[in-house]
């Protein structure tokens, strides 16, 4: 059995207790934030993970004073579990739902570590735990760097702190393996452990603070998204159109199609506004069905919709807009007065070779839309006055 030299208990204990106190305060703050914003589930998960790590710190502090094999197993398990929960919180924030990719390997490593520690090979148990934590922290850093879509400066700091903390745990495991310390009986004590104590506390404090920053950033993004989204159909609204394309220069292969549901006021008058809302949602669903890369859809207000298309010839734009119109004509909305079919008219406006503004292309599309209305509705017309699309089958109860 290796004998551990008397540690500097004042410094070591102070560091551990300070880390535990800092972790408790940070988790309480996160619980309070989550209580005011329940949709931010990743904040709640981080708070839980930090509390688990606080429990690990307290048990490990007891273990340094009174070594016990069972206490060692529990402390090591809590260390892996705490970082697993934090890894899951990162997956929640980044919208990665398959948590099993992290959970299954971590629990397998925890089981192996507990088994070898129970057999007296606690040094191997520490090595396995350090390797598990290194893998989890490395995964967090990689996920944020690869999948993050927000401020790259914040993501760089998150990746750096995660990587630094992972390296400090890896060094602890390497030192134990280099010295061949497979059986300890006490908490390991070497330069890597002391370095890890400082680095882990600093990095976890920094990651906790960055979690608050990421929550604030996500809240801003969600608020902006809400202001640019039509609450009925879920499409972007006119503000979203201006935000995305207000400063855009439209060339000859960029187009806007404006749609207007035919006789929509009559639909509301005869069938009622709830049915009218269903018709609007059905048309939005048809647009989504035919959406593709380079096609953005918007509800401009009332029964007016628009789609912006990039990298489109006039023939392809006309074909896509016509398919949307025909597909919508086959949609049936059940009503107390019987099944209802509606139709839509569309007009296409293109940019010019020397560049056009959003307002100019909207004006061209609007002009073509009125031409489609004058042509009898239920058709799409482009700037070249192409023939209207084939009409849909006769409506059962047409608006």
UniProtKB/TrEMBL annotation:
<keyword id="KW-0472">Membrane</keyword>
<feature type="transmembrane region" description="Helical">
    <location>
        <begin position="154"/>
        <end position="177"/>
    </location>
</feature>
<feature type="transmembrane region" description="Helical">
    <location>
        <begin position="75"/>
        <end position="95"/>
    </location>
</feature>
<feature type="transmembrane region" description="Helical">
    <location>
        <begin position="42"/>
        <end position="63"/>
    </location>
</feature>
<feature type="transmembrane region" description="Helical">
    <location>
        <begin position="197"/>
        <end position="214"/>
    </location>
</feature>
<keyword id="KW-0812">Transmembrane</keyword>
<keyword id="KW-1133">Transmembrane helix</keyword>
<feature type="transmembrane region" description="Helical">
    <location>
        <begin position="12"/>
        <end position="35"/>
    </location>
</feature>
<protein>
    <recommendedName>
        <fullName>diguanylate cyclase</fullName>
        <ecNumber>2.7.7.65</ecNumber>
    </recommendedName>
</protein>
<feature type="transmembrane region" description="Helical">
    <location>
        <begin position="102"/>
        <end position="121"/>
    </location>
</feature>
<feature type="domain" description="GGDEF">
    <location>
        <begin position="252"/>
        <end position="385"/>
    </location>
</feature>
<dbReference type="InterPro" id="IPR043128">
    <property type="entry name" value="Rev_trsase/Diguanyl_cyclase"/>
</dbReference>
<dbReference type="InterPro" id="IPR050469">
    <property type="entry name" value="Diguanylate_Cyclase"/>
</dbReference>
<dbReference type="InterPro" id="IPR029787">
    <property type="entry name" value="Nucleotide_cyclase"/>
</dbReference>
<dbReference type="Pfam" id="PF00990">
    <property type="entry name" value="GGDEF"/>
</dbReference>
<feature type="transmembrane region" description="Helical">
    <location>
        <begin position="127"/>
        <end position="147"/>
    </location>
</feature>
<dbReference type="InterPro" id="IPR000160">
    <property type="entry name" value="GGDEF_dom"/>
</dbReference>
């Amino acid at each position: 059995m290796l004998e551990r030299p008397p540690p500097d208990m004042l410094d070591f204990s102070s560091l551990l207790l300070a880390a535990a106190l800092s972790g408790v305060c940070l988790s309480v703050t996160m619980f309070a934030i989550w209580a005011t914003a329940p949709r931010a589930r990743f904040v709640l998960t981080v708070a839980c993970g930090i509390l688990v790590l606080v429990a690990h710190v307290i048990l490990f502090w007891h273990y340094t004073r009174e070594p016990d094999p069972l206490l060692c197993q529990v402390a090591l398990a809590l260390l892996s579990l705490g970082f697993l929960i934090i890894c899951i919180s990162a997956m929640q924030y980044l919208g990665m739902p398959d948590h099993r990719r992290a959970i299954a390997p971590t629990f397998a490593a925890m089981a192996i570590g507990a088994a070898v520690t129970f057999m007296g090979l606690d040094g191997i148990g520490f090595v396995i735990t350090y390797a598990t934590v290194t893998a989890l922290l490395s995964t967090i850093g990689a996920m944020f760097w690869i999948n993050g879509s927000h401020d790259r400066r914040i993501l760089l700091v998150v990746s750096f702190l995660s990587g630094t903390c992972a390296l400090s745990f890896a060094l602890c495991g390497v030192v134990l393996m280099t010295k061949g310390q497979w059986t300890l009986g006490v908490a390991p004590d070497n330069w890597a452990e002391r370095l890890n104590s400082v680095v882990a506390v600093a990095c976890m404090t920094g990651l906790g603070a960055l979690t608050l920053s990421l929550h604030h950033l996500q809240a801003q993004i969600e608020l902006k998204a809400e202001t640019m989204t039509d609450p009925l159909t879920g499409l972007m609204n006119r503000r979203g159109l201006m935000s995305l394309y207000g400063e855009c220069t439209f060339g000859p292969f960029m187009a806007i199609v404006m749609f207007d549901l035919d006789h929509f006021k009559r639909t509301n008058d005869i069938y009622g506004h709830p049915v009218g809302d269903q018709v609007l949602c059905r048309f939005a669903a048809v647009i989504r069905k035919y959406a593709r890369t380079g096609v953005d859809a918007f509800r401009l207000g009332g029964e007016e919709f628009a789609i912006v298309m990039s990298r489109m010839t006039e023939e392809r734009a006309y074909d896509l807009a016509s398919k949307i119109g025909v597909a919508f004509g086959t949609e049936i909305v059940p009503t107390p007065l019987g099944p209802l079919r509606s139709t839509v008219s569309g007009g296409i406006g293109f940019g010019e070779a020397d560049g056009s503004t959003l307002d100019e292309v909207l004006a061209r599309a609007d002009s073509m839309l009125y031409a489609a209305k004058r042509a009898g509705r239920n058709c799409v017309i482009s700037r070249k006055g192409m023939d209207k699309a084939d009409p849909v089958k006769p409506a059962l109860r047409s608006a």
